[in-house]
Structures are given as structure tokens and as C-alpha cells.
Amino acid sequence: MSGQNLPENAWGADKTSPRMGERKWHAEWAHLPTGLARDVVFVVDGGRFVAVTSGVPAQQAAADGAERLPGVVLPGLANCHSHAFHRALRGRTHHGGGTFWTWREGMYAVASRLDPASYLGLARATYAEMALAGVTAVGEFHYLHHQLEGTPYDDPNAMGQALIQAAAEAGVRLTLLDTLYLSGGLTADGHVPLEGPQLRFGDGDVQRWAERVSGLSDHTSGGPAHLRLGGAIHSVRAVPRDQLALVPDCGVADGTDPLHIHLSEQPAENEATLAAHGLTPTQLLAEEGVLAPNLTAVHATHLTETDIGLLGSAHATACFCLTTERDLADGIGPARALADAGVRLSLGSDQHAVIDLIEEARALEMHERLDSLQRGRFSPGELLAAATAHDTIGWPDAGRLEVGARADLVAVRLDSPRTAGSDPAQVLLSATAADVDTVIVDGQVVVTDGRHRLEDGRRLGAQLAEAIEPLWEGAH
Questions:
Q1: Residues 126 and 262 in one domain
Q2: Of 218, 350, 356, 437, which one is the catalytic site residue?
Q3: Which of 57, 79, 437, 452 supports an S-S bond with 135, CB 3.0-4.6 Å?
């Protein structure tokens, strides 16, 4: 499926980064690695910055052919944890209050109705919504692999290929974190088998998972220019201990390849792991050799001091998905303590109750304020670093406005009712995704005047509704 019917300006199957000739942009304000700068000209060629010069007046830049970017320019934002199909759950899971576990039943219902064609439509519109919010790369935690009863499609990676094509058409880079999912849960007596909708998630064991993933290739090995491959362990609930130990050497996420895992999102996960193994989930990962610098622990909400120390010693990353964690009543994770221990922080929109990486960054600080009763727990610079952690999803040459980096630019308006009067240095504390005006990914303009290039005569909301509503037909 990948590469079929792509728009003319999407990444194709030529295996190379897009080359559109030299272009120049001028920003009144921009967040450079050295700090906030004024009157910055960006020269882009071959999808990368070839010059970044501050102190160039707008009139001079315009005379030299530079196009104007409004407001303040940020590096491209990195959405480091996504489940694209969860976008269909927004506004559908709040009846009767419920819990994380009842929410999960709705998620399974949606999962049971998707096939490669419908997943392409949903994911394309979801990734386009991310681009509107300033996201230039997304880490997709992908476990929706097979047909309903668990039988592989003719192409065993058909669902992954749908995601790859969706990202290309939406104009964002994709890190496909193909996910190992082997069991239906964990009790004190051990793991229970997959059942019902979960059957399509599983490959049987680590070896068969690795064999399926080997059928994919990314830009580092001749695959699509916008694609990076990585791996994920769904959770210690979904992968038995003897299989965990095989993951680091199975060929899916070796060395510097990104490896992600849901970790201690719910107290019930900790309780089950302690009952089954006498260890916390983090301790179990440490004993089985999974903790490493390439590991990202998603959520990391309910951690002990020992857990925090282990993650810090491993130089791991913790990905906070704050709008999801509050939507599901997961709790407030120890972000400041993790950062102080040496853990890198990243951000994700997870189930997409909200797609707004600016809000995720602001929530990192605001949740800390609620928990600690103190302000200033994270500086604006630290929030921007968390929102641009492209290297944690395998794009080490992105997320910085500097020569040689991928030419990702996000212009945030400073004249909206939300941002008017804001200090450009503090825009992450006032703006929302609605203030994103222009998004450029690898030198390609994807969003202009707050409209995505896919919205040619048809608004994105209509495209999302068309993809989502059939998944709920007959539901009450």
C-alpha cells in the first residue's frame, strides 16, 4: 500500500530526502540553540538548513527573496508517543465516568473495526491534525497488526504500511515503533492468553515478531525518506519475562534504535508485577537487560525512588503524555524528579484526547505546580527541549534551528487573543495549537495560514468525521 496515490508534494518512494531548490524564510523571532534571536533568516536547500543568520532586518531579507514567517519560530515539535487509531475515541468515552479499564473496552471496539484501508484514512487525517499543531515527526506505537482472529494479512505489515503511507500524505516524518504484544494481561499466577480483539495484536513470540518486522525498511536502509523504524514492548503486562530478555538482541531495536515501553501507567500494573515477580516493572526491566539509553519509558507515572534511580542510571528517556494521563485519571508522574536523576524527557499525545504539543509542554510545568505547590519547576527552555526530542524517536538531526539540521520550522502567531502581549521567549506558556500558522517539514511547506495542504476544498474536520463515524455505527 505504501507509496500509492501520494500527493505530488508528499514523500515518494525515491528513497531520498526531497530537494526543492534553495528557499529563504525570515522570522522576526526564533528560538535558536543559543536562545531567542531576532530577525533571523533561514536558508534551506535539500531539506536542510544551509544558513541561519540573525540580525537581518525584514526589509533587507525580503529584498533578498526571503518569505516572511509570522510571530515566533520554533523547531519542529516531536510527538513521541501516538496511537493513531485512538483518535476515534475522542469525545466518546466519558459516559458514566468509567475507569482506564472501561475506556480500554471502547478502544478494543474501535480496534476490531479497522482494516488497512480504513486505517489509512483515519491515520492520514490524524497525522494532518498533528501537523496543524506543529508536529513534524511522530513516534507511532503500533500494535494493530493482523486480522481480527490473529491471522496475518497477505502482506503481514499491511497495517503498518497504511501508517507509513498516511504519514507521507500528511507530510510528517514517521517513526514506526512496531510493538511486541504477546499476552492479554498479568496476574499473580502469571500471564493470561490474548483473547478477543487482542488476538490481532500478537505475533506469538519475539522471534516471529522480529521476522515480521524484518519485512520493513526505513530511510537508513533504502526505505522511504520519511520513515524510521524502531521497536516497542507494549508493557510488562503484555510480554512475559522470558520474552523480555530476548528483545535487546532480536534485531528490531538494537543499539541506538529507539525502543519504547508503557511503564507503570496504572497502580494495578505495579501490583500485578510485584505479585508475579516480586519486582516493580522498572526493576524487572533492569534485571532482564532492557534498561538502556535507547529506551523510552512512556508515562512512568507510578514509580518508586528506586525506579527513578534505575532509569536515571540507564540514561533512559521518560515520555509524558499529560493530556492523556489526566483524561484517563492515571495520575501525575514525577517529571522533575526524573529529570534531576538524569532522565531525558519527551512528550506525546498518546490517545489524542487533545493533539497539542504546546499544551503537553505547558502541562509538564502545570502538573508539577499542582503536585509541588511551586511555580517554575521547568524553565521555558526545558519545556521546548521536551517538545522537540526528535532524537528519542530516531531523528538525531532534527529539533534544532541550526546549520545542517533538518529544515523543520513552526511559526506561532503572537497576535492571537491567546498570545497578544506575550514575551516570545515564553510563548509555550500562552499559545495553543490554534496559534500555529506555518509548518515546514524537511523544507516542504505543509501548513500555511493555519491550513493543511490536504485541505484543498475539504476541511480536515470533515475528513476526520468521515474516518471516525463508521467505526461507531450501531454503538450507544
A1: yes
A2: 350
A3: 79
